[in-house]
Recover the amino acids of this structure.
């Protein structure tokens, strides 16, 4: 493991819109502090924000874990359910089960998961109904000094 690996985790409470954006803002701050390229920080922040919002809107509770190495930004958002029945459908642009009151707040365009995928170099989603959903997103850092021969 790299000596300059930064790891952390943040709890997200389902339904708590008052704290929406806290986890992604915290990650953004850390990435800026590390001097990571603005475009990469933006991608990571967008992807993390969408993951965070989905937990707030759809899940009972979740945890967001991040690992930052000189090579990559890795974000894992894991929640405690209800899970997604049809992942392929959920991944489609425009698909949303958001109720009206959520749409009135400006959410529910069905673009969160597609945007997470777009902004990640590696995107994985795994879900079990009754158990929960885990989304893993990796954004590669392609800095000159930070690259490494494999
Ligand atoms: N963590 C989750 N737990 C349960 N269901 C989820 C979760 N994340 C997404 N979903 C389901 O997948 C659908 C699509 O999610 P996506 O984030 O793409 O769109 P949205 O949240 O509905 O709208 P937007 O993200 O544009 O505000 C959701 O409407 C919901 O049915
Ligand atoms: Mg969403």
């Amino acid at each position: 493991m790299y000596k300059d690996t930064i790891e952390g985790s943040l709890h997200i409470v389902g339904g708590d819109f008052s704290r929406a954006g806290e986890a992604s803002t915290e990650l953004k701050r850390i990435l800026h502090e590390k001097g990571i390229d603005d475009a990469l920080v933006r991608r990571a922040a967008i992807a993390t924000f969408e993951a965070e919002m989905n937990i707030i809107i759809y899940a009972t509770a979740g945890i967001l874990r991040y690992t930052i190495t000189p090579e990559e930004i890795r974000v894992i958002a894991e929640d405690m359910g209800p899970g997604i029945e049809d992942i392929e459908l959920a991944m489609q642009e425009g698909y949303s089960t958001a109720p009206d009151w959520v749409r009135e707040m400006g959410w529910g365009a069905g673009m969160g998961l597609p945007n997470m995928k777009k902004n990640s170099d590696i995107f994985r989603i795994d879900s079990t109904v009754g158990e929960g959903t885990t989304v893993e997103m990796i954004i590669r850092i392609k800095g000159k000094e930070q690259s490494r021969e494999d």
